[in-house]
Design goal:
Elements lengths: L15 E2 L4 E11 L2 E10 L2 E6 L4 E11 L3 E6 L4 E8 L2 E8 L2 E9 L18 E8 L2 E8 L10 E7 L16 H10 L4 E5 L16 H18 L2 E9 L1 H11 L5 E5 L6 H15 L9 H11 L2 H8 L3 H4 L5 E7 L7 H11 L14 E5 L26 H13 L1
Parallel strand pairs: 12-13, 12-14, 14-15, 15-16, 16-17
Antiparallel strand pairs: 1-2, 2-3, 2-9, 3-4, 4-5, 5-6, 6-7, 7-8, 8-9, 10-11, 11-13
Length: about 400
Protein backbone atom coordinates (compact mmCIF):
# COMPACT_ATOMS: atom_id res chain seq x y z
CA UNK A 1 0.00 0.00 0.00
CA UNK A 2 1.85 3.02 -1.27
CA UNK A 3 -0.01 5.52 0.86
CA UNK A 4 -0.76 5.32 4.55
CA UNK A 5 -4.54 5.44 4.62
CA UNK A 6 -4.69 7.38 7.86
CA UNK A 7 -7.47 9.91 8.25
CA UNK A 8 -6.10 11.48 11.40
CA UNK A 9 -2.52 12.02 10.34
CA UNK A 10 -2.54 12.07 6.52
CA UNK A 11 0.19 10.68 4.35
CA UNK A 12 0.64 12.75 1.22
CA UNK A 13 1.23 12.51 -1.36
CA UNK A 14 24.30 22.46 -7.09
CA UNK A 15 22.66 25.77 -7.06
CA UNK A 16 23.59 29.42 -6.74
CA UNK A 17 21.97 32.64 -5.70
CA UNK A 18 22.79 35.26 -8.27
CA UNK A 19 22.76 38.96 -7.65
CA UNK A 20 19.31 39.20 -9.22
CA UNK A 21 17.51 35.92 -8.74
CA UNK A 22 17.15 32.57 -7.04
CA UNK A 23 18.21 29.83 -9.47
CA UNK A 24 19.12 26.16 -9.78
CA UNK A 25 17.79 23.24 -7.70
CA UNK A 26 16.63 23.78 -4.10
CA UNK A 27 15.63 20.88 -1.85
CA UNK A 28 13.68 20.45 1.36
CA UNK A 29 11.57 18.01 3.38
CA UNK A 30 7.94 18.32 4.40
CA UNK A 31 6.96 16.86 7.76
CA UNK A 32 3.59 15.33 6.82
CA UNK A 33 2.38 13.74 10.04
CA UNK A 34 4.99 11.14 10.97
CA UNK A 35 6.36 11.00 7.43
CA UNK A 36 8.94 13.17 5.70
CA UNK A 37 8.38 13.95 2.01
CA UNK A 38 11.21 15.41 -0.06
CA UNK A 39 10.49 18.32 -2.41
CA UNK A 40 12.84 19.83 -5.01
CA UNK A 41 12.30 23.02 -7.03
CA UNK A 42 14.41 23.65 -10.13
CA UNK A 43 14.49 27.39 -10.84
CA UNK A 44 15.65 28.60 -14.25
CA UNK A 45 14.86 32.24 -14.84
CA UNK A 46 11.08 32.57 -15.10
CA UNK A 47 10.61 28.80 -15.38
CA UNK A 48 10.38 26.19 -12.65
CA UNK A 49 10.01 22.42 -12.37
CA UNK A 50 9.03 20.58 -9.18
CA UNK A 51 10.06 17.08 -8.09
CA UNK A 52 8.54 14.89 -5.41
CA UNK A 53 11.15 12.11 -5.61
CA UNK A 54 9.72 10.15 -2.69
CA UNK A 55 6.49 9.78 -4.66
CA UNK A 56 8.17 9.09 -8.00
CA UNK A 57 7.13 12.46 -9.51
CA UNK A 58 9.73 14.42 -11.47
CA UNK A 59 9.71 17.44 -13.75
CA UNK A 60 6.25 18.70 -12.80
CA UNK A 61 5.79 22.11 -14.47
CA UNK A 62 5.28 24.84 -11.89
CA UNK A 63 4.29 28.47 -12.35
CA UNK A 64 6.39 31.22 -10.80
CA UNK A 65 4.10 33.90 -9.43
CA UNK A 66 6.97 36.02 -8.13
CA UNK A 67 10.74 35.70 -7.95
CA UNK A 68 13.44 38.16 -6.92
CA UNK A 69 16.90 38.13 -5.38
CA UNK A 70 15.53 37.01 -2.02
CA UNK A 71 11.88 35.91 -2.41
CA UNK A 72 9.86 33.45 -4.45
CA UNK A 73 6.30 32.20 -4.83
CA UNK A 74 5.55 29.17 -7.00
CA UNK A 75 2.47 26.98 -7.61
CA UNK A 76 1.98 23.56 -9.17
CA UNK A 77 -1.47 23.16 -10.73
CA UNK A 78 -1.58 19.36 -11.01
CA UNK A 79 -0.99 18.77 -7.31
CA UNK A 80 -2.54 22.01 -6.07
CA UNK A 81 0.69 22.83 -4.22
CA UNK A 82 1.84 26.39 -3.45
CA UNK A 83 5.19 27.43 -1.94
CA UNK A 84 6.30 30.89 -0.91
CA UNK A 85 9.51 31.77 0.89
CA UNK A 86 12.24 34.29 1.57
CA UNK A 87 16.01 33.86 1.49
CA UNK A 88 17.55 33.88 4.98
CA UNK A 89 21.18 32.93 5.70
CA UNK A 90 21.51 30.87 2.52
CA UNK A 91 18.19 29.09 2.96
CA UNK A 92 14.73 29.77 1.54
CA UNK A 93 12.43 29.74 4.57
CA UNK A 94 8.75 29.48 3.72
CA UNK A 95 5.41 27.71 3.77
CA UNK A 96 4.09 24.88 1.60
CA UNK A 97 0.32 24.53 1.14
CA UNK A 98 -1.64 21.66 -0.39
CA UNK A 99 -5.12 20.24 0.06
CA UNK A 100 -6.10 22.78 2.69
CA UNK A 101 -3.01 22.10 4.82
CA UNK A 102 -0.06 24.45 5.32
CA UNK A 103 3.33 23.26 6.52
CA UNK A 104 6.73 24.90 7.03
CA UNK A 105 9.30 24.13 4.35
CA UNK A 106 12.94 25.17 4.37
CA UNK A 107 14.88 24.82 1.12
CA UNK A 108 18.64 24.52 0.82
CA UNK A 109 20.74 24.59 -2.37
CA UNK A 110 21.18 21.31 -4.24
CA UNK A 111 19.33 18.28 -5.56
CA UNK A 112 18.41 15.06 -3.72
CA UNK A 113 20.49 12.00 -4.55
CA UNK A 114 19.81 8.72 -2.75
CA UNK A 115 21.80 5.52 -2.91
CA UNK A 116 19.73 2.65 -4.29
CA UNK A 117 22.29 -0.12 -4.94
CA UNK A 118 19.71 -2.70 -6.11
CA UNK A 119 18.34 -0.56 -8.94
CA UNK A 120 19.35 -2.33 -12.20
CA UNK A 121 21.51 -0.36 -14.62
CA UNK A 122 21.48 -0.84 -18.39
CA UNK A 123 22.58 -2.57 -20.49
CA UNK A 124 20.54 -5.57 -19.36
CA UNK A 125 21.47 -9.15 -20.33
CA UNK A 126 17.91 -9.80 -21.50
CA UNK A 127 15.41 -8.33 -23.95
CA UNK A 128 12.61 -5.91 -23.08
CA UNK A 129 9.69 -4.74 -25.18
CA UNK A 130 7.54 -1.64 -24.80
CA UNK A 131 3.90 -2.75 -25.06
CA UNK A 132 0.36 -1.52 -24.48
CA UNK A 133 -3.00 -3.17 -23.88
CA UNK A 134 -6.53 -1.84 -23.38
CA UNK A 135 -9.36 -2.11 -20.89
CA UNK A 136 -12.20 -0.37 -22.70
CA UNK A 137 -11.11 3.20 -23.37
CA UNK A 138 -8.17 2.91 -20.95
CA UNK A 139 -4.81 2.19 -22.56
CA UNK A 140 -2.15 0.75 -20.24
CA UNK A 141 1.49 1.11 -21.29
CA UNK A 142 4.25 -1.04 -19.90
CA UNK A 143 7.41 -3.06 -20.27
CA UNK A 144 7.56 -6.77 -21.05
CA UNK A 145 10.84 -8.28 -19.85
CA UNK A 146 11.88 -11.61 -21.34
CA UNK A 147 14.13 -14.12 -19.56
CA UNK A 148 17.86 -13.95 -20.11
CA UNK A 149 18.84 -16.16 -23.04
CA UNK A 150 15.25 -16.67 -24.20
CA UNK A 151 15.10 -17.41 -27.93
CA UNK A 152 11.32 -17.37 -28.35
CA UNK A 153 11.11 -21.11 -28.98
CA UNK A 154 10.63 -22.43 -25.46
CA UNK A 155 7.64 -21.53 -23.30
CA UNK A 156 8.37 -19.76 -20.02
CA UNK A 157 6.32 -18.54 -17.06
CA UNK A 158 5.26 -14.88 -16.98
CA UNK A 159 3.80 -12.69 -14.24
CA UNK A 160 2.03 -9.35 -14.43
CA UNK A 161 3.06 -6.98 -11.63
CA UNK A 162 0.24 -5.03 -9.94
CA UNK A 163 1.06 -2.02 -7.76
CA UNK A 164 -0.28 -0.98 -4.39
CA UNK A 165 -2.68 1.88 -3.72
CA UNK A 166 -2.13 5.30 -5.24
CA UNK A 167 -1.38 6.17 -8.84
CA UNK A 168 2.03 4.69 -9.59
CA UNK A 169 4.36 4.10 -12.49
CA UNK A 170 5.38 0.69 -13.79
CA UNK A 171 8.33 0.47 -11.37
CA UNK A 172 6.08 1.15 -8.35
CA UNK A 173 8.52 3.97 -7.63
CA UNK A 174 8.55 5.37 -4.10
CA UNK A 175 11.26 7.22 -2.16
CA UNK A 176 13.65 6.60 -5.03
CA UNK A 177 13.07 2.85 -4.76
CA UNK A 178 11.89 0.94 -7.85
CA UNK A 179 10.79 -2.41 -6.42
CA UNK A 180 9.00 -3.65 -9.55
CA UNK A 181 12.04 -2.91 -11.70
CA UNK A 182 14.19 -4.83 -9.21
CA UNK A 183 11.75 -7.77 -9.20
CA UNK A 184 11.44 -7.82 -13.00
CA UNK A 185 15.21 -7.73 -13.42
CA UNK A 186 15.79 -10.55 -10.93
CA UNK A 187 13.10 -12.76 -12.45
CA UNK A 188 14.40 -12.16 -16.00
CA UNK A 189 17.82 -13.35 -14.85
CA UNK A 190 16.14 -16.48 -13.44
CA UNK A 191 14.06 -17.65 -16.38
CA UNK A 192 10.79 -15.78 -15.70
CA UNK A 193 9.17 -13.08 -17.84
CA UNK A 194 7.24 -10.14 -16.38
CA UNK A 195 4.90 -7.39 -17.51
CA UNK A 196 4.90 -4.21 -15.45
CA UNK A 197 2.78 -1.24 -16.48
CA UNK A 198 1.93 2.32 -15.53
CA UNK A 199 -1.32 2.58 -13.57
CA UNK A 200 -4.20 4.28 -15.32
CA UNK A 201 -3.55 8.03 -15.32
CA UNK A 202 0.17 7.56 -14.60
CA UNK A 203 3.20 7.64 -16.88
CA UNK A 204 2.29 6.70 -20.44
CA UNK A 205 -1.08 5.16 -19.51
CA UNK A 206 -4.44 6.83 -20.03
CA UNK A 207 -7.66 6.50 -18.05
CA UNK A 208 -9.54 7.96 -15.12
CA UNK A 209 -7.67 7.49 -11.84
CA UNK A 210 -9.74 10.00 -9.83
CA UNK A 211 -12.90 7.88 -9.81
CA UNK A 212 -11.28 4.45 -10.11
CA UNK A 213 -11.70 1.76 -7.46
CA UNK A 214 -9.85 -1.46 -6.73
CA UNK A 215 -12.35 -3.20 -9.01
CA UNK A 216 -11.31 -0.96 -11.91
CA UNK A 217 -7.63 -1.68 -11.25
CA UNK A 218 -8.43 -5.40 -11.16
CA UNK A 219 -10.07 -5.12 -14.57
CA UNK A 220 -6.96 -3.34 -15.88
CA UNK A 221 -4.79 -6.20 -14.61
CA UNK A 222 -7.20 -8.78 -16.09
CA UNK A 223 -6.80 -7.07 -19.47
CA UNK A 224 -3.04 -7.42 -19.02
CA UNK A 225 -3.39 -11.15 -18.39
CA UNK A 226 -5.45 -11.52 -21.56
CA UNK A 227 -2.80 -9.58 -23.46
CA UNK A 228 -0.12 -12.00 -22.23
CA UNK A 229 -2.20 -15.00 -23.30
CA UNK A 230 -2.61 -13.48 -26.74
CA UNK A 231 1.16 -13.04 -27.07
CA UNK A 232 1.89 -16.75 -26.86
CA UNK A 233 5.25 -18.14 -25.79
CA UNK A 234 4.25 -18.48 -22.12
CA UNK A 235 3.14 -21.52 -20.13
CA UNK A 236 2.08 -20.42 -16.65
CA UNK A 237 0.61 -16.89 -16.60
CA UNK A 238 0.24 -15.37 -13.15
CA UNK A 239 0.11 -12.20 -11.10
CA UNK A 240 2.40 -10.67 -8.49
CA UNK A 241 0.58 -8.00 -6.48
CA UNK A 242 1.87 -5.73 -3.74
CA UNK A 243 -0.48 -4.48 -1.02
CA UNK A 244 -3.69 -3.47 -2.85
CA UNK A 245 -2.18 -5.43 -5.73
CA UNK A 246 -2.35 -8.46 -3.41
CA UNK A 247 -6.12 -7.97 -3.12
CA UNK A 248 -6.27 -7.77 -6.91
CA UNK A 249 -4.27 -10.99 -7.12
CA UNK A 250 -6.89 -12.73 -4.94
CA UNK A 251 -9.69 -11.34 -7.14
CA UNK A 252 -8.00 -12.63 -10.28
CA UNK A 253 -7.27 -16.00 -8.68
CA UNK A 254 -10.88 -16.35 -7.54
CA UNK A 255 -12.08 -15.54 -11.07
CA UNK A 256 -9.71 -18.21 -12.44
CA UNK A 257 -7.93 -15.67 -14.61
CA UNK A 258 -4.46 -16.49 -13.25
CA UNK A 259 -2.50 -19.74 -13.17
CA UNK A 260 -0.66 -18.64 -10.04
CA UNK A 261 -0.49 -15.63 -7.73
CA UNK A 262 2.01 -14.01 -5.39
CA UNK A 263 0.60 -11.72 -2.70
CA UNK A 264 3.20 -9.32 -1.28
CA UNK A 265 1.68 -7.85 1.90
CA UNK A 266 -1.83 -8.26 0.55
CA UNK A 267 -4.72 -7.62 2.97
CA UNK A 268 -6.59 -10.56 4.48
CA UNK A 269 -9.23 -8.51 6.31
CA UNK A 270 -11.75 -5.84 5.34
CA UNK A 271 -10.51 -2.35 4.51
CA UNK A 272 -12.09 -0.63 7.50
CA UNK A 273 -10.09 -2.95 9.78
CA UNK A 274 -6.88 -2.05 7.89
CA UNK A 275 -7.63 1.65 8.34
CA UNK A 276 -8.42 1.23 12.01
CA UNK A 277 -5.06 -0.42 12.68
CA UNK A 278 -3.18 2.19 10.63
CA UNK A 279 -4.79 5.06 12.52
CA UNK A 280 -4.21 3.49 15.93
CA UNK A 281 -0.55 3.05 14.96
CA UNK A 282 -0.36 6.70 13.89
CA UNK A 283 -1.97 7.87 17.13
CA UNK A 284 0.47 5.83 19.22
CA UNK A 285 3.39 7.38 17.35
CA UNK A 286 1.91 10.84 17.84
CA UNK A 287 1.89 10.33 21.62
CA UNK A 288 -1.65 9.04 22.15
CA UNK A 289 -1.15 5.38 23.12
CA UNK A 290 -4.52 5.13 24.87
CA UNK A 291 -6.58 6.78 22.15
CA UNK A 292 -9.93 5.15 21.46
CA UNK A 293 -11.01 4.70 17.87
CA UNK A 294 -13.71 2.59 16.26
CA UNK A 295 -14.42 1.29 12.79
CA UNK A 296 -17.71 3.17 12.87
CA UNK A 297 -15.87 6.46 13.35
CA UNK A 298 -13.43 5.56 10.57
CA UNK A 299 -16.27 4.71 8.20
CA UNK A 300 -18.12 7.94 8.95
CA UNK A 301 -15.00 10.00 8.27
CA UNK A 302 -14.31 8.17 5.01
CA UNK A 303 -17.87 8.38 3.73
CA UNK A 304 -17.83 12.14 4.34
CA UNK A 305 -14.91 12.46 1.88
CA UNK A 306 -16.98 11.02 -1.02
CA UNK A 307 -13.90 9.35 -2.48
CA UNK A 308 -14.81 6.38 -4.71
CA UNK A 309 -11.57 4.52 -4.07
CA UNK A 310 -11.81 4.86 -0.29
CA UNK A 311 -15.51 3.98 -0.27
CA UNK A 312 -14.76 0.74 -2.09
CA UNK A 313 -11.69 0.06 0.03
CA UNK A 314 -13.41 0.20 3.41
CA UNK A 315 -16.22 -2.08 2.19
CA UNK A 316 -14.09 -4.67 0.39
CA UNK A 317 -13.61 -7.93 2.30
CA UNK A 318 -11.02 -10.16 0.59
CA UNK A 319 -12.12 -13.34 2.39
CA UNK A 320 -14.77 -14.45 -0.16
CA UNK A 321 -12.20 -14.14 -2.95
CA UNK A 322 -9.48 -15.88 -0.93
CA UNK A 323 -11.85 -18.81 -0.36
CA UNK A 324 -12.20 -19.23 -4.13
CA UNK A 325 -8.46 -19.25 -4.92
CA UNK A 326 -7.58 -22.70 -6.18
CA UNK A 327 -4.47 -21.86 -8.15
CA UNK A 328 -1.00 -21.97 -6.61
CA UNK A 329 -0.61 -19.05 -4.19
CA UNK A 330 2.50 -17.67 -2.51
CA UNK A 331 1.53 -15.41 0.41
CA UNK A 332 4.34 -13.25 1.84
CA UNK A 333 4.52 -10.54 4.51
CA UNK A 334 7.01 -8.93 6.87
CA UNK A 335 6.52 -9.10 10.62
CA UNK A 336 7.31 -5.37 10.96
CA UNK A 337 4.75 -4.26 8.38
CA UNK A 338 2.78 -1.38 9.96
CA UNK A 339 0.48 -0.83 6.97
CA UNK A 340 -0.82 -4.37 6.47
CA UNK A 341 0.04 -6.01 9.78
CA UNK A 342 1.05 -9.63 9.39
CA UNK A 343 -0.29 -10.66 12.81
CA UNK A 344 -3.82 -9.79 11.68
CA UNK A 345 -3.79 -10.37 7.93
CA UNK A 346 -1.71 -13.52 7.50
CA UNK A 347 -3.91 -15.70 9.78
CA UNK A 348 -7.01 -14.53 7.89
CA UNK A 349 -5.44 -15.54 4.57
CA UNK A 350 -4.00 -18.80 5.89
CA UNK A 351 -7.30 -19.94 7.41
CA UNK A 352 -9.38 -19.11 4.34
CA UNK A 353 -7.27 -20.53 1.53
CA UNK A 354 -9.17 -23.59 0.20
CA UNK A 355 -8.10 -26.98 1.52
CA UNK A 356 -8.61 -30.61 0.65
CA UNK A 357 -10.25 -33.05 3.03
CA UNK A 358 -6.88 -33.92 4.53
CA UNK A 359 -6.37 -30.27 5.54
CA UNK A 360 -3.70 -29.47 2.96
CA UNK A 361 -4.06 -26.56 0.55
CA UNK A 362 -5.94 -27.35 -2.67
CA UNK A 363 -2.77 -26.47 -4.57
CA UNK A 364 0.21 -28.43 -3.33
CA UNK A 365 2.39 -25.44 -4.27
CA UNK A 366 0.64 -22.88 -2.04
CA UNK A 367 2.83 -21.41 0.69
CA UNK A 368 2.49 -18.77 3.42
CA UNK A 369 5.57 -17.08 4.86
CA UNK A 370 6.28 -14.19 7.23
CA UNK A 371 9.79 -12.70 7.20
CA UNK A 372 11.30 -11.44 10.44
CA UNK A 373 12.54 -7.86 10.41
CA UNK A 374 10.92 -6.78 7.12
CA UNK A 375 8.54 -3.86 6.60
CA UNK A 376 5.68 -3.24 4.14
CA UNK A 377 8.17 -2.78 1.29
CA UNK A 378 10.04 -5.95 2.35
CA UNK A 379 13.07 -3.96 3.45
CA UNK A 380 15.12 -4.84 6.52
CA UNK A 381 14.21 -2.15 9.04
CA UNK A 382 14.23 -1.03 12.64
CA UNK A 383 10.63 -0.04 13.39
CA UNK A 384 8.71 -0.79 10.18
CA UNK A 385 7.27 2.73 10.16
CA UNK A 386 6.86 4.57 6.85
CA UNK A 387 9.29 7.32 7.84
CA UNK A 388 12.13 4.78 7.52
CA UNK A 389 11.44 3.90 3.88
CA UNK A 390 13.41 6.74 2.32
CA UNK A 391 16.50 6.27 4.50
CA UNK A 392 16.83 2.51 3.89
CA UNK A 393 19.12 1.81 0.93
CA UNK A 394 17.78 -1.72 0.36
CA UNK A 395 14.85 -1.79 -2.05
CA UNK A 396 13.66 -5.35 -1.36
CA UNK A 397 15.10 -8.24 0.61
CA UNK A 398 17.21 -10.66 -1.41
CA UNK A 399 15.52 -13.53 0.44
CA UNK A 400 12.15 -12.42 -0.89
CA UNK A 401 13.49 -12.20 -4.45
CA UNK A 402 15.04 -15.65 -4.12
CA UNK A 403 11.83 -17.16 -2.77
CA UNK A 404 9.62 -15.70 -5.50
CA UNK A 405 11.92 -16.87 -8.31
CA UNK A 406 12.42 -20.34 -6.83
CA UNK A 407 8.68 -20.81 -6.17
CA UNK A 408 7.60 -19.80 -9.68
CA UNK A 409 10.36 -21.95 -11.13
CA UNK A 410 8.91 -25.06 -9.44
CA UNK A 411 5.36 -24.62 -10.77
Amino acid sequence: MRRLLTIIIPFFISSIVSAQQISGPWKGELQAGVTKIAIVFHFNGDECLMDSPDQGAFGLPAEIGFISADSVRVSQAQSGAVFSGRLEDGKIVGRFSQGGLTMPLVLTPGDIVRNRPQTPVEPFPYETEEVSFSNGDTVLSGTLSYPEGWDGRRRVPVAILVTGSGTQNRDEELFGHKPFLVIADYLARNGIATLRYDDRGAGASTGDAVNATTRDYMEDAAAGLEFLRSKGGFNKIGVIGHSEGGSIAFMLGAAKKADFLVSLAGPGVQGDSILLLQNLNALRRAGYPDAKLTKEYIRAQIKAQKNPWLDYFIDYDPVPDIREVRCAALILNGDKDTQVESAVNIPAIYLNLPRDRDGSFVSKYSRVKVYPGLNHLFQHCETGQADEYADIEETISQDVLNDIAAWIGKL
